Amino acid sequence: ALNSSSSFKYKLVSEDGVAQVMLLVGTDSGSVSHPYWEENFTLAVKLQQYMNERYPLLARPIKLTQSSYNQQIAPGAFLVEIGANGNTLSEAIMAGNRFAKCLAEVIKNSVE
Q1: Do 20 and 59 contact (CB within 8 A), yes or no?
Q2: Rounded to whole angstroms, how far apart are CA atoms 69 and 59?
Q3: Which value, to the nearest 10 degrees, does the dihedral of the CA atoms of residues 38, 43, 45, 46 take?
Q4: Which of 5, 7, 11, 19 could form a disulfide with 95 if both were Cys (CB 3.0 to 4.6 A apart)?
């Protein structure tokens, strides 16, 4: 969670009060081979672009890290973080619903 001190909480919201979504993609860490990270990153970029078109400010920038998070097991994997510790449950649920709709459309368009 984003938290710089115990008295201050971050609240990430889009234009209409919905929590923001961040995609996290692991890359090669040097000690663990991650053969799918570029494919995972490509999917994350497509998804983020679609979210930005459909719901401006829903998506935060994609975070790349030198960890695998078991994403090396299969292609198409990434982590999704919805909101921050200052968001309400309803803000997070609305964001999750929007994210799910966008993900379904991106997957549907990828297989057609």
Answers
A1: yes
A2: 21
A3: 150
A4: 19
Q: pLDDT tens digits, residue range 91-104?
A: 999 999 999 999 99
Q: What is the sign of the dihedral through the CA atoms of 12, 10, 97 and 39?
A: positive
- What's the N-to-C CA distance of the chain in angstroms? 37
Residues β-bridged to residue 13:
19
Helix (H) / strand (E) element for 99: namely: helix 89-111
Report how far residue 106's alpha carbon sits from residue 43's, in angstroms, rounded to the nearest whole number: 9
Place of tokens 């998506």: 59
Answer yes or no: are the C-beta atoms of 75 and 44 closer than 8 Å: no
Spans in the chain with pLDDT lower than 50: 1, 8
Q: Are the C-beta atoms of residues 75 and 36 closer than 8 Å to each other? A: yes
Handedness of CA 70, 50, 103, 82 (dihedral sign): positive
Residue 110 makes CB contacts below 8 A (sequence gap 6+) with 43, 46
